[in-house]
Design a protein that fits this description.
Layout lengths: L1 E6 L7 H12 L3 E5 L8 H6 L5 E5 L6 H10 L3 E3 L2 H8 L1 H10 L8 E3 L15 E5 L9 E3 L22 E5 L6 E8 L2 E8 L11 E3 L3 H14 L3 E9 L2 E9 L9 H20 L4 H28 L22 E2 L18
Parallel strand pairs: 1-2, 1-3, 3-4
Antiparallel strand pairs: 5-8, 6-7, 6-8, 9-10, 9-12, 10-11, 10-14, 12-13
Length: about 350
């Protein structure tokens, strides 16, 4: 297959997606890489030629890569993820409205152009978590204890948070100081616990942890609502149950077993599905590609299957919050094992 990756400057040395690109090339696929933040791109020629089976985006919120991906989608090219799904989660204010409208557990969300406007929120709703609506990687996330601290130098009006864009605020959800990051790799779900950016002093060893059916259901619903295939969800385990505080397209997939091979195989599968939809007749070449894709998916899953077989007599996974060096990573949930609603035709992300 022929793929084009759009990679922002921030990820030029990052294992995800560079190792995925290397894996795909080692499988014999043609992979071109465009660097929208540091190179001249002949956009009309690159996109109108239709010389790629799919375009894949790994970018920061607000970066130039999303515009290029939208341009590719506008002429009918396949994108991974679906470009409309990416737009739906990149704007955190929009994502909160969509998610709450679908009944997902998302905190009440306020939006303002200036942090001082949040002083109108009732004081009993403080502390607030304030962050840029187009933020990413925990940038400029602030915990504001009281209204009078909104304009402090280390608050949302400080140098890192004064970007001039829209801000959102949500009531703080009481938690243990540990975030749960759930990754979806084309229907397979993995949970990782890590230190909360709001509680950096709370020592937490990042590791894969068992995934509860409730959290798995919420994560699968997010994929259905937004039309995402490769994504991550930040979840807090609050006093009233799981709460979704962020959604990311094409995240790092840290702690996912064999992440590079699994993500690579998922990209190929998603690209082929799109390519089949554009072709009037699959023909012999399409049959050969399907067979190759099936083998690659088997190869990607082979390592974990071997590990699972070796775990037949191993200790059970250690529950979140406990320690145990000998604990084996839990197997993934799959979309087939999680109740998942039918995606409405008009939802963000369209038909995938």
């Amino acid at each position: 297959m022929r793929l084009c990756f759009l990679v922002e400057e921030q990820y030029r040395h990052d294992g995800m997606p560079l190792e995925v690109i290397h894996q795909l090339r080692s499988w014999g696929h043609q992979v071109d890489v465009l660097w929208p933040g540091r190179s001249l791109i002949r956009i009309s020629e690159a996109i109108q030629a239709g010389s790629h089976d799919a375009w894949v985006l790994k970018t920061v919120s607000g970066g130039p890569g999303l515009t290029l991906l939208e341009a590719a989608a506008s002429v009918g090219l396949t994108t991974v993820n679906d470009v409309r799904a990416i737009r739906g989660v990149r704007d955190k204010a929009l994502a909160a409205v969509i998610a709450r409208g679908k009944g997902l557990p998302v905190p009440v969300t306020y939006a303002a152009a200036r942090p001082e406007e949040f002083a109108e929120i009732a004081e009993e709703e403080f502390p607030l978590v304030v962050k840029p609506a187009d933020g990413s990687s925990g940038r400029a996330v602030r915990l504001v204890a009281t209204p009078d601290r909104l304009l402090e130098p280390d608050g949302p009006a400080g140098p890192e948070g004064a970007g001039g864009g829209l801000l959102i605020a949500q009531p703080y959800v009481a938690n243990s100081g540990t975030d749960l990051k759930v990754y979806s790799v084309a229907g397979e779900l993995y949970a990782t616990e890590r230190c909360s950016p709001l509680h950096p002093a709370h020592a937490v060893r990042e590791r894969q942890v068992p995934l509860t059916p409730e959290v798995a259901r919420i994560t699968a619903e997010i994929g259905a609502v937004f039309g995402l295939d490769l994504y991550g969800v930040d979840i807090l385990l609050g006093p009233d149950g799981p709460v979704v505080v962020d959604i990311n397209d094409f995240p790092s997939f840290r702690q996912v077993p064999d992440a590079v091979a699994r993500v690579s195989a998922a990209v190929l599968d998603l690209a082929r599905n799109g390519a089949r939809g554009r072709e009037a007749c699959g023909g012999e070449a399409s049959v050969r590609e399907d067979a190759q894709g099936t083998q690659e998916m088997r190869d990607a899953r082979g390592t974990q299957d071997t590990q699972a077989a070796g775990r037949a007599g191993a200790p059970a996974p250690v529950p979140a919050g406990q320690t145990g060096a000998a604990a084996a990573p839990p197997p993934p949930f799959t979309a087939a094992s999680v109740p998942r609603p039918t995606r409405p035709a008009a939802s963000i992300g369209g038909g995938r």
